[in-house]
Design brief:
It holds the Pfam family HTH_18. Keywords: DNA-binding, Membrane, Transcription, Transcription regulation, Transmembrane, Transmembrane helix. This is HTH araC/xylS-type domain-containing protein. Helices cover 69% and strands 0% of the residues. The protein contains 17 helices and no strands. The chain folds into two domains: 213 residues; 128 residues, Arc Repressor Mutant, subunit A (Orthogonal Bundle), CATH 1.10.10. It is an all-alpha fold and 362 residues long. The radius of gyration is 25 Å and the shape is elongated.
Length: 362
């Protein structure tokens, strides 16, 4: 009886995944859509592979389902990086990094598609999947403080408390004894949780599509990264913006004054400490920066301001003898490492390379 209920629930999950896939295919082709489709296909493989059906009845289909199932942790990691890490851009990965990923993919296909998981490589893949899942949870949580989007902040909490925990538990069960994870009770519990998650996702999607009150305003969160449009959002002086309330206008002027006196050079500056200095609620400051300057996280604003100052100083002969570490500390960075990474992200050069290129042109 438990097995029949289990199979019925899994059929319901597959039906919802098909419907969800159909809705996604109607959306414009974006990286997000592709990742969501890949995640849905992987979950479908998991639903079918963990059904209460003996392995020998699957035949060669088992190898394909195994590939799809174990790919979920990797797809999930990419999805979380894309959603919550605004600096994540696989298109800019170096050739050695791409080669390493291609080699890992070949080993993955061989271990699961050819050897059907009957090798120590399968345990290595599970361990790596667990590490990626934990790292995805860390990414979601670590950016919570600096995130300027209320909806995305709530999503970070959901990921940490929900999807990340569930994914980690699944991988742990895969590492556990086979007799335990193949019990009918565990299979039924797995099906119930999957059905609950997919049902929630479907209900949320329909609410977003058909209830305008549930949608994010375009100026709050478009869901599109600047890199997808090829556009950069100008950091306009807040005092030039329109349609602000009197309270927000006053806050905009205070923020303008803070930037004008280069208060962003403070070491350890956070959105919370800045809100305290400007004597305003933190959520109001988050919304103001996002809506009037287009930033999705506070560190993005800080890095843009600081790196512009760094470029000016590195171009100034008066700073030629100033060590780069001293410049980094003066600009508000804790150490030279974060400064170098931020500078190279913005300019495609290290601070030292930038300084030498300027000096060679004099």
């Amino acid at each position: 009886m438990i097995s029949l209920i289990d199979i019925l629930l899994r059929m319901m999950v597959l039906g919802q995944l098909l419907l969800l896939g159909g809705l996604l295919l109607r959306e414009p082709a974006t990286t997000l859509r592709h990742l969501l489709l890949a995640a849905g296909i992987s979950v479908a493989g998991l639903v079918m592979l963990t059904a209460p059906i003996p392995d020998q009845h699957y035949g060669l289909l088992r190898n394909l389902l195994l590939l799809l199932t174990d790919a979920f942790a990797f797809i999930f990691w990419l999805l979380i990086r894309y959603l919550f890490d605004d600096e994540f851009c696989p298109g800019k990965w170096s050739k050695p990094t791409r080669l390493a990923f291609a080699l890992a993919a070949a080993v993955y296909v061989y271990a699961l598609g050819v050897q059907a998981g009957n090798s120590p490589l399968h345990d290595v893949i599970h361990a790596l999947g667990l590490m990626l899942t934990v790292h995805a949870g860390y990414i979601a949580w670590s950016g919570f403080t600096d995130d300027l989007l209320d909806a995305r902040r709530r999503a970070r909490i959901m990921v940490v408390l929900g999807i990340s925990v569930y994914s980690a538990v699944l991988v742990l069960f895969e590492l556990a004894d086979e007799h335990f994870r193949n019990t009918a009770v565990f299979g039924l519990a797995n099906a119930i949780v999957l059905l609950s998650i997919i049902s929630f996702a479907m209900s949320r999607l329909f609410r977003l599509r058909h209830d305008p009150a549930q949608r994010e305003q375009p100026d709050t969160d478009t869901g599109i990264k600047p890199s997808e449009t090829g556009m950069t959002i100008p950091a306009m002086p807040l005092s030039t913006t329109t349609s602000l309330s009197s309270i927000d206008s006053a806050l905009a002027q205070s923020l303008d004054a803070f930037i004008a006196r280069q208060g962003y050079h403070q070491n350890g500056l956070t959105i919370s400490s800045l809100a305290g200095q400007l004597a305003c609620p933190e959520h109001r400051l988050r919304r103001l920066i996002n809506q009037t300057r287009g930033y999705r996280n506070f560190n993005g604003l800080l890095n843009d301001l600081r790196i512009e100052d760094a470029k000016a100083r590195l171009s100034d002969p008066a700073y030629d003898s100033t060590p780069i570490l001293s410049l980094a500390l003066d600009l508000g960075y804790d150490s030279i490492g974060p400064f170098n990474r931020a500078f190279k992200t913005k300019t495609a050069q290290t601070p030292g390379e930038f300084r030498r290129s300027i000096q060679n042109r004099r």
